[in-house]
Design brief:
Layout lengths: L1 H32 L3 E6 L3 H5 L2 H13 L6 E6 L9 H12 L7 E3 L13 H5 L1 H4 L5 E4 L7 E7 L2 E8 L5 H13 L4 E6 L27 H7 L7 E6 L7 E7 L5 E7 L12 E7 L4 E8 L4 E2 L7 E4 L17 H6 L2
Parallel strand pairs: 1-2, 2-3, 6-7, 7-8, 8-10
Antiparallel strand pairs: 1-11, 4-5, 5-6, 9-10, 11-12, 12-13, 12-14
Helix pairs in contact: 3-4
């Protein structure tokens, strides 16, 4: 009897120790999931593809080398990958972006300079077949990758990066509305070449470089009205294209009372077609903030002005947006909350 009691106590102690170890492992895993992570944004690279291929390569080499240091979750290209839409320029882009293959996920949109009279060479180099075996590739609309989405997990959160064509057609926005509604449990980043203007407003009627002037359908304001403002889980819109100083940002309130940060970055007007400037967007889950800095791997320096170095607030905890993996519900049950 006494032996049985001793054995029972031993088993109980062992279970307590095991429970403590499991709790520590789970806590460590949860803490790791809440670590800061970064998304790198490549603004218009058109002049690099045509005149300075070494700068394009230097950007992506830096991303590869700094993947672990910055905990880089993915890379986003804002369009105008090429300048004159030639095979040679697409080959430059292919070489530069290829440095990231197998290293970090990346998503790209087309700009007006990536389009020719016969369409685009984009799908020859960056079509669905390039990404179809990647676990983070979500899919596309119609035949090519002009409109596509990518599924990323970082910081304990599930993201969907939605890439839309330059001046998207109404049918593209209809597809986007349906797609986002089907992924309510994911946090959405919308990327399109033209959306924000350099005066901190969305591109609209009367603005230079409006997609309407290129025979395209929807500008930034129309995208906001027809698509962006309708969805609670859209929190960020990224774009390039616009000249002047090529910088602008705006935070708007959507129909669901959600804040949407809309950010423009374009450096092609600067020396050497941009001197390699890129954006580092560091997500700080425990602080509910996104820290945006601008860095040049070519110059090896940060831009220090408040247009290139700033923070935006974004709730990354359960108080602001339910992540299906943190609620104890299925993703479908979580989506029903919205």
């Amino acid at each position: 009897m006494k032996k049985n009691a001793i054995a029972a106590v031993a088993i109980a102690m062992a279970l307590i120790v095991l429970a403590a170890i499991l709790a520590q492992v789970l806590a460590a895993r949860k803490a790791k999931e809440r670590e800061p992570f970064s998304i790198i944004v490549l603004p218009d690279t058109q002049k690099y593809s045509r005149q300075h291929p070494e700068i394009f390569v230097e950007q992506t080499k830096w991303i590869k080398e700094q993947r672990d240091a910055f905990n880089i979750a993915c890379v986003i290209h804002e369009g105008d990958i090429t300048d004159h839409h030639t095979e040679k320029e697409w080959e430059v882009a292919d070489e530069a972006m290829g440095i990231l293959d197998g290293i970090v996920p990346y998503a790209m949109v087309l700009g007006n300079h990536d389009l020719g009279p016969e369409g685009t060479l984009f799908n020859k180099y960056f079509g669905p077949e390039r990404f179809e075996n990647e676990p983070w590739y979500g899919g596309h609309f119609e035949d090519g990758n002009e409109n596509a989405f990518y599924l990323i997990r970082a910081g304990g959160m599930d993201f969907l990066i939605l890439c839309l064509e330059f001046g998207p057609r109404d049918e593209v926005l209809e597809w986007a509305n349906t797609l986002v509604a089907e992924h309510k449990h994911r946090r959405i980043i919308v990327v399109t070449h033209c959306y924000m203007y350099s005066d901190d407003t969305r591109v609209g009627e009367g603005d230079e470089w409006n997609p309407h002037g290129y025979g395209r359908e929807n500008d930034g304001e129309e995208m906001w009205q027809k698509f962006v403002k309708k969805h609670k889980n859209i929190f960020l819109v990224l774009s390039g294209h616009i000249l002047n100083d090529g910088l602008g940002r705006l935070t708007s309130t959507g129909d669901k009372e959600n804040k949407v940060h809309q950010i423009l970055a374009n450096y092609q007007m600067q020396e050497n077609g941009g001197n390699g400037w890129l954006r580092i967007m560091t997500f700080l889950p425990t602080e509910n903030k996104i820290d945006i800095t601008t860095y040049s791997p070519v110059l090896k320096e940060y831009a220090s002005d408040d247009q290139n170095q700033f923070q935006v607030e974004y709730s990354m905890g359960r108080g602001g947006f339910f992540d299906c993996r943190s609620t104890g519900r299925t993703c479908q049950e979580t989506a029903a909350l919205f």
